[in-house]
Amino acid sequence: MKRALLIVLDSVGIGHAPDAADFGDEGADTVGHIRESQPGLAIPHLDAAGLAHAQCLAADRPPPPSETTLAYGCLTERSPGKDTTTGHWELAGAPCNRPFATFPSFPPELVAEMEAASGVSFLGNYAQSGTVILDELGAEHLATGRPILYTSADSVIQVAAHIDRVPLDQLYAICRAIRPLADREHIGRVIARPFAGEPGAFVRTADRHDFSLIPSRTVLNALKEAGIPVHGVGKIPDIYAGSGISTAHPTASNRDGMDTVDRLWRETRGSSCLVFVNLVDFDMLYGHRRDPAGYARALEEFDAWFGPFHAEMGQNELLLVTADHGNDPTWSGTDHTRERVPILMKSPAGPGSLGAASTFSAVAGTLASWFRVPERFGSLLRVS
User: Fold this and answer.
1) Is the pLDDT of residue 194 over 80?
2) What pTM value is reported for the model?
3) pLDDT for 139-192, tens place per residue?
4) Which of 118, 163, 212, 365 is 20 to 30 A from 314 in CA distance terms?
């Protein structure tokens, strides 16, 4: 009986991609710039596994002289985007051929359609940080009850509402009503953003919900159809709109995600399954907010969990650790950054270099091979 664990460290990029200049990101390097700006960063388990080696590979530099405990490499995104949906879909073997639509603000006619479909009148309609827009429009929302509509550099329609003014079920219903319009416009996600608190002290709650475009066929669909359960942890079920997901396990933080993996790994011992987790705090709390110190602490928290966990994994268990894009906390603006991402792998093949893969879909190809799914989703990660 074989198991696999796929961990996506949301936004943990390791250096600008070859086409980064096309995205305004030449020179971006999430992990590299955190190391430079936070000289006390200590992630011994990740570096021993091969993270530092993967960084050198991504930058075409000679690797450190030390041996690694896991196989290591880097992945280059093929799809034309640097958002969560694009990265995750390609990881699962469904690269995008065209970018998702983005807007600095939504056209008046589209807003009118969204209001007609949802039965509400919106405030806002501009691109802004999710926390800043609460400071700007939260008080007016409380006074009027009108939900806040906003977007970002990603392909998203975001709707924020105070839990005491718009109940969660109503907020989710508003987003569901908008989703068909987002499908038509090729917008990746409609995101419900509930918040609480008083003016000057608003806080977003953990009840965020993403309503995503349904991807084309992925390795997750193939595994589920083959009778191999796919357990989605964190925002994984939302990213794939539930397609190919057997069970959903929402989480409130990286810590909650790691605890959920611990529980699922215990509960599924002796059976075949894929546990697929996204750890979002790196991106949501520290990358977008340009907080290198907080990002460093989050990496150290993961590292402390990762070392003991992977040391206990058995021979019939595959571990893949990667990312979906970059979000350099030292970069200008608040957007994701177009970067290569690391891949760390524990398998019976042992440690060594995996090289530089030309697509994130190498992850899907490796999962299909591991579980002997007779479909091709991407090239394999092979230890040299």
Assistant:
1) yes
2) 0.91
3) 999 999 999 999 998 899 999 999 999 999 999 999 999 999 999 999 999 999
4) 365
- Residue with the larger pLDDT of the pair 152 and 52: 52
Where do we find the tokens 């200008």?
Answer: 332
Which burial class, exposed, middle or buried, applies to 356 when counting CB atoms under 10 A from its CB (0-12, 13-18, 19+)?
middle
Structure-token match 């989605």, residue found: 232
Residue where the block lists tokens 């530099």: 61
User: If we measure between CA atoms, which residue out of 301, 279, 297, 281 comes closest to residue 289?
Assistant: 281
Quick one: pLDDT at residue 12? Answer: 98
Q: What are the pLDDT digits (tens) for 342-353? A: 999 999 999 999
